[in-house]
């Protein structure tokens, strides 16, 4: 009997005209989760000659004028930037731009030229590696002979950069890091790149009167007497970073 009832029930369902059948609702397609931008890997060169990582529309825009031969800059890169990128850049709240500033003059030229000689995404990892090895690179015990110093004063700036890059080990350092020797030499000999460094330094002094390195600019305003992460983080939070 049960089988007969079941068969009659099935037949009745099949006999219902299509117009009277309950509409079958199609399941809504599953929404794909929107991938969150990897702001730390979003790196672009700026018109001012710096390299910026992060959300270009970030509420807080941080600029650091730093030198690759500056111990205080190295301390910030190694001790502050990890917290900066993890807590603020990665979340899209802060963009971070590094602009080279040759605080020590000719000595800075080779590391700047070589440091800009890599693709955008390699810029910050190389900067960190240079800072981590700063003491070994510029802390060598021997000095440039007096006769050579006098000779350097008569050479073109790019030739001086090439010599100092070799003397302090920056050229060998970046070649060991993977940059071809020919490419390293070409970057050291790039007169337009060197002229750009000079122009960008003059522009920085005109805009902000850079007192030393590092100098931090937060939303266009110099963070006065701030040279480390402990002092910088409250400035970022006061500007709107959370």
Automatic annotation (TrEMBL):
<feature type="domain" description="Thioredoxin-like fold">
    <location>
        <begin position="48"/>
        <end position="233"/>
    </location>
</feature>
<feature type="signal peptide">
    <location>
        <begin position="1"/>
        <end position="21"/>
    </location>
</feature>
<dbReference type="InterPro" id="IPR036249">
    <property type="entry name" value="Thioredoxin-like_sf"/>
</dbReference>
<dbReference type="Pfam" id="PF13462">
    <property type="entry name" value="Thioredoxin_4"/>
</dbReference>
<protein>
    <recommendedName>
        <fullName>Thioredoxin-like fold domain-containing protein</fullName>
    </recommendedName>
</protein>
<keyword id="KW-0732">Signal</keyword>
<dbReference type="InterPro" id="IPR012336">
    <property type="entry name" value="Thioredoxin-like_fold"/>
</dbReference>
